[in-house]
Amino acid sequence: MFPSQWSTRPYLVQVLLEQDIFTFGMAFELVLGQGYIWMVHRTPGSDKWELEMRSYRLWQMLVESIRDQGLNPLEVLGWKKTGSLLVGRTTEELDMLKRRVKQLSEAGLQAECLYSSDLLLEEPELAVGEDGGAAFVPDDCQFDAQHTASFIEKANRHFASKGRYAEFYNDPVKCLLRSGSSREVEGVQTSKNTLYSKAIVVAAGSWSGSLMHDLLRDSDILLDVPVKPRKGHLLVLENVMPLKLNHGLMEMGYVDHQTVTQLETISASEPHDCGQDLSVSMTATLDAMGNLVLGSSRQFVGFSSEVDESIINHIWTRAGEFFPKLQDLPLSHFSKGRKVRIGLRPYMFDGKPIIGLVPGLPNVFLATGHEGEGLTLALGTAEMVADMVLGNPGTIDQAPFAVHGRCC
User: Fold this and answer.
1) pLDDT value at position 258?
2) Angstrom distance (rounded) from CA 121 to CA 124
3) Given a cut of 50, is residue 166 above it in pLDDT?
4) Going from the N-terminus, what domains does the chain have, and what CATH number goes with each?
5) CB 207 within 8 A of CB 225
6) Residue-wise DSSP of 191-216
7) Band of residue 12 on the pLDDT scale cut at 50, 70, 90
8) Confidence at residue 1, expressed as pLDDT on a 0 to 100 scale
9) Does the keyword Protein biosynthesis apply (predicted)?
């Protein structure tokens, strides 16, 4: 199934409106993220589990559809079935990993617990000590986020000639258009165009709250979308020959790193009070080009997108605690082959995205607040929104993501 196949549903037409070209895909953190489609750190039975599993299946279906057309998913999407390892270094963390593997297995995923000696066979460069281990999900995969966003955009453009798809870059929405009698929303006014529509989906990532505030300025509808930007750094190094990785990895701290809002430590072992709720947890993988991608940081600093070298140094130091070979090389050694990615994750205080109808506006929908799960949840979110717009019964429970009660 291609994402654009949702356009083939009766009466569904897509119009992409963006403030600028760069923001395409950033609402779901497609462009700047690591590209993980991982289930190893998910929690069966949680409010997000159905959406996570549905999206996971849709990504698998997309890969299969590409193969069925005689194309190579690695070339088209930068897709790799790496498997994922959630790594712990203490007996307490190993116990938690065992429980997680049991939960994932009971939920129908292939998962196993690797003890220190077995883990060393899978990842010889990784150091977790005698008490460590990992949860391993072999079917987890990763994509090149930029390739994937470009592929979806290109696939959608096939519908342009049929009047089913259009793009308006560098043309931000200025206001909603309301009918004179019913006051229902019938379209939007942009900087350059007047566009009429049966439904409007606001998916502006970290900017969704301010955009909705502006759009409802002259309305009697009270809506507060509490999405905040949560800044992240990723370090990309080209040709790191000494280090070989066979899987995607993240440390146990990443699970808390995603959900805890008030963090006073830079890592499990290194206190660091920066006044910005900063956290750094080790994630590591090799992308489709063989580059080493290290992460990741999270902090609340508004909409700043400047590189903070101190955070890059923390990421490097933290990675070295798990991969001792990196300690032999100063980060300055990679000055010519180094890139830093900055992204603003749309953070929601309860850890769940907002996906649903805006109360009082029967044809305006929100899809935001995915934070670091944007790529993973993208296809499930798209399917959910399409079903809502068309009035179809959903494939999963939509209630946990409703706007009402969380933004009103």
Assistant:
1) 54
2) 6
3) yes
4) 3-31+145-226+357-401 (3.50.50.60), 84-138 (no CATH), 228-347 (3.30.9.10)
5) no
6) SS-EEE-S-EEE--GGGHHHHHHHHT
7) low
8) 40
9) no
